[in-house]
């Protein structure tokens, strides 16, 4: 399986991380995303007219959406990661997968603006990013009330992997995670998974703030 990849792309990292957790070996084809903009050149546009990476190829199959790639890797090598034990869980996983694309736009947009000087309304991106983080914090708080550490179950699914990179890298866009104890515990839970691999730029400094102490109300 071949992954068109940029080492500092959180969307590409989702796929590398999922493959590492599943023990799947990827053939990495590095893309000169910055400064070369190779993803907008003729070879890659022929594969993905949307002009984005990652792109995953397996034989005749060409996938250009990270959520579809996560689902494909899981269906092939670890169906339990699909989180489809019951209709409600399957629906929750889909809900967070859709949500993850908002994170690409707002948290990812703020990060690109800060790191690669991409044009954009940084204040609006940050405000949307913070609104999304509040939603995620509330979702994870509700999960804690159900004694579950991850987004849909008490074990990780592709939904967690879809959301993890842009959240972990939010501080790169100038958005602090200090105010979100449940998110910080969730980041730690993902980090401690067997087979977890780092991405350059997702570093522990982001999490070395005071320990999170989420309030858990009596049931
Ligand atoms: N829908 C895509 C979006 C991925 C995405 O936004 N990738 C970024 C890199 S992290 C990209 O290629 N952006 C194009 C650009 O900024 O020129 C997915 O989730 O797979």
Automatic annotation (TrEMBL):
SUPFAM superfamilies: GST C-terminal domain-like, Thioredoxin-like. Residues 86-212 form the GST C-terminal domain. Gene3D superfamilies: 1.20.1050.10, Glutaredoxin. Pfam families: GST_C_2 (PF13410), GST_N (PF02798). Keywords: Transferase. PROSITE patterns: GST_CTER (PS50405), GST_NTER (PS50404). The keyword Kinase does not apply. One of its GO terms (molecular function) is transferase activity. Residues 1-81 form the GST N-terminal domain. This is Glutathione S-transferase family protein. It comes from Rhizobium vallis.
């Amino acid at each position: 399986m071949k992954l068109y990849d940029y080492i500092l792309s959180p969307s590409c990292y989702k796929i590398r991380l999922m493959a590492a957790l599943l023990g799947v070996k990827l053939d990495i084809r590095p893309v000169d995303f910055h400064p070369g903009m190779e993803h907008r050149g003729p070879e890659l546009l022929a594969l993905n007219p949307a002009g984005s990476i990652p792109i995953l190829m397996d034989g005749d199959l060409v996938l250009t959406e990270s959520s579809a790639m996560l689902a494909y890797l899981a269906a092939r090598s670890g169906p339990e990661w699909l989180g489809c034990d019951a209709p409600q869980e399957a629906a929750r996983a889909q809900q967070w997968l859709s949500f993850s694309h908002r994170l690409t736009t707002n948290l990812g947009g703020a990060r690109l603006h800060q790191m690669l000087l991409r044009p954009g309304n940084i204040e609006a991106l940050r405000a949307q990013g913070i609104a999304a983080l509040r939603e995620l914090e509330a979702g994870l708080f509700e999960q804690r009330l159900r004694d579950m550490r991850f987004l849909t179950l008490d074990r990780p699914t592709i939904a967690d992997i879809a959301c993890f990179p842009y959240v972990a890298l939010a501080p790169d866009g100038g958005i602090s995670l200090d105010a979100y104890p449940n998110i910080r515990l969730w980041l730690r839970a993902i980090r401690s998974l067997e087979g977890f691999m780092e991405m350059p730029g997702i570093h522990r400094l982001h999490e070395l703030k005071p320990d999170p102490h989420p309030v858990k109300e009596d049931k």
